[in-house]
Recover the amino acids of this structure.
């Protein structure tokens, strides 16, 4: 952990310890809870390089809540989403969560976006005792036994290992890594390097790209000079779009691969022909194939809100909301944060219709290990 990041986290924890009234008094058991509604908080990028993720979360979570509310809500209370923009800036995420805590506007947290952002807020969540379901990050560094955090998606470590194993199985040797120049990208680089070592290989190239893409031309030039057979894109958001386009143009024939967060759904459409053949890991089933009941339920919930287009991101948000709702159901008619934590921890083999969540009653709480591999078509959908 970098010194600056460590000092920031330590300062946040110290501030909470020194002023417990800031959190504990404001964040009483009735925070975000009324006789008629339960308010769920979320800080996510609705602007900036990861805005597509925020859009997907809003669509999927509100679709799930709309379906639940139409059936009477949770023990007579409706679910409401209180979503605020942080632009993928960790300090803004911290400020947003602090405000929710101080004002008592959220009963629980759902799917805040980003590894550095979640790194910043987890000390707050743990100190406050706020239940937090499904952070939108697969970073293994954030899965270290937090008692209030309930992950749903599989880890980036598992995604990267699955991807490297497939590439190695195809006989590919020269695998390069382009990673985002932040905590997420560096952790992904470590995961990929370890996975390659297990296959007896080293990265053919490793280069960092700025989150705003300011050094994109230099990155593309370095990849072109190295001429790897495949490139793992440990990137996320809009920079991935320009990166894929640049590599397709300047390194023709190279196999481009990435993980579940490399490209949000809006970016897949932007790529068009440039996205054709891009191989990605998926931590959710294909949202456009109604083979599983969970996908059919998701599609019906989206259509009920006038949404006719489906995406992995909004399906993930839908599933995450269903998991939180299950915990709230089990917490009973007189819910508290403590009862919700206990209820979530007690989830075993919850089948949402072909997608299973199991927390096994022990930390770190990780509900799913589902990983699939898909190849994109020029239409931005996964090929059959």
């Amino acid at each position: 952990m970098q010194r600056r990041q460590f000092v920031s986290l330590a300062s946040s924890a110290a501030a909470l310890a020194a002023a417990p009234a800031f959190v504990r008094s404001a964040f009483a058991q009735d925070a975000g809870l009324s006789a008629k509604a339960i308010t769920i908080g979320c800080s996510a990028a609705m602007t900036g390089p990861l805005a597509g993720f925020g859009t997907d979360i809003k669509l999927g979570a509100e679709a799930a809540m709309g379906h639940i509310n139409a059936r009477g809500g949770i023990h007579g209370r409706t679910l409401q989403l209180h979503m605020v923009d942080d632009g993928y800036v960790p300090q803004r995420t911290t400020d947003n969560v602090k405000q929710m805590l101080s004002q008592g506007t959220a009963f629980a947290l759902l799917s805040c976006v980003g590894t550095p952002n979640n790194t910043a807020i987890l000390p707050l969540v743990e100190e406050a005792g706020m239940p937090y379901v499904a952070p939108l990050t697969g970073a293994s560094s954030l899965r270290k036994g937090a008692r209030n955090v309930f992950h749903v998606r599989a880890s980036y470590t598992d995604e990267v290992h699955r991807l490297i194993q497939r590439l190695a199985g195809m006989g590919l040797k020269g695998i390069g890594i382009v990673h985002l120049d932040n905590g997420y990208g560096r952790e992904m680089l470590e995961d990929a390097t370890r996975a390659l070592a297990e296959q007896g290989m080293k990265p053919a190239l490793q280069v960092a790209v700025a989150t705003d893409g300011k050094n994109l031309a230099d990155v593309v030039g370095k990849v072109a000079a190295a001429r790897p057979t495949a490139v793992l894109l440990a990137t996320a958001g809009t920079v991935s779009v320009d990166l894929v386009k640049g590599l397709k143009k300047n390194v023709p024939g190279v196999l481009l691969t990435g993980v579940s967060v490399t490209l949000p759904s809006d970016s897949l459409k932007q790529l068009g022909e440039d996205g054709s053949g891009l191989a990605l890991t998926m931590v959710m089933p294909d949202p456009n194939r109604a083979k599983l009941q969970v996908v059919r339920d998701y599609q019906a919930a989206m259509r009920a809100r006038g949404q006719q287009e489906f995406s992995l991101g909004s399906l993930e948000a839908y599933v995450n909301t269903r998991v939180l709702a299950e915990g709230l159901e089990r917490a009973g008619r007189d819910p508290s944060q403590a009862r919700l934590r206990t209820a979530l921890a007690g989830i075993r083999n919850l089948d949402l219709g072909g997608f299973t969540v199991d927390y096994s009653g022990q930390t770190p709480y990780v509900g799913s290990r589902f990983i699939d591999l898909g190849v994109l078509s020029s239409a931005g959908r996964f090929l059959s």
Observations:
- The chain has two domains: 3-153+293-369, 156-259.
- The first strand starts at residue 37 and ends at 44.
